[in-house]
Amino acid sequence: MNFSSARQYFYQEIQQSDEQIDLAKAALYIAQEEYPKLDPEEYLNVLDTMAWELQERLPDSRYPLRIVQSINQYLYQDLKFSGNKIDYYDPRNSFFNDVIDCRLGIPITLALVYLEVARRIDFPMVGVGMPGHFLIRPDIPDIEIFVDAFNGGEIIFAQDCEERLSQLYQQPVTLQPEFLAVVSNRQFLARMLTNLKFIYLKQQELEKTLAAVERILLLFPGLTLELRDRGLIYYQLGYYPQAVDDLQNYLAKVPDAEDASVIRRLLTELGKDG
Q1: In Å, how far from its chain's centre is CA 108?
Q2: pTM of the full predicted structure?
Q3: Contacts 24+ apart (CB under 8 A), 94-101
């Protein structure tokens, strides 16, 4: 694989067992493809400094709600982190260095700031992959609260999540357990990259879309839809041999896919049988 140095660092990081993956480092390696001169250590040091400053502000009583309130005060009142509601689909909201520098982000990148600072003060928190709006929660038994990092660290409950999903989809939604499932580190990174994928696809920046899909496939090589999408992007970019390989592999894995006839026509056009 002919990877850039940033891609190599990302690949090396995700070769570890899931719990050993350093999310902050991996997120900075994602950003490093956009900003080749980025120094990840500089931003890791910023997170260390933030945690040290927060430690000085923590209450003597380490009740979870008090800790969350202290983190919220520090991140949102003192440092002025906030959700970018004006330009939500700006790709900079998905680059961890930009989020730290500008103190603006989307739910998942602000959640990462929160998780990394919490981890450094030994307050265990985990990511929650709610559809359409990423959340976090304390990883503590019998504490059934969620924190919305995009909305100033607002503390919400399961019923609130159901209401938000209903608002998001503009129809009643019944909360399913999987909607509030904890995400693995690989799933976290894939969700970040999926955001970038769709932003760049909408902007028709196909090389950058391809880079996002390639990294999703490094995380999860078996994702057939990403394999198909990579093949289609290769086709649009004129990388026809690579397109043929991916699209043929896609059909081999899911020969009865809904779009199989479309993919076969495309392969015929490329002079290959589907």
Answers
A1: 6
A2: 0.94
A3: 94/192, 94/195, 94/196, 94/199, 95/30, 95/31, 95/34, 95/35, 96/24, 96/27, 96/28, 96/30, 96/31, 96/43, 97/28, 97/31, 97/35, 97/38, 97/43, 98/31, 100/43, 100/46, 100/47
Per residue in 208-254, pLDDT (tens digit) is: 999 999 999 999 999 999 999 999 999 999 999 999 999 999 999 99
The residue written with tokens 């999703």 in the block is 216
CA distances from residue 33 to 97, 130, 198, 252, 271 in whole angstroms, order as listed: 12, 28, 17, 32, 34
Strand bridging mode 104-105 / 82-83? parallel
pLDDT, tens only, 26-60: 999 999 999 999 999 999 999 999 999 999 999 88
User: What length is written for the chain?
Assistant: 274
Which structure tokens are listed for 162? 């159901």
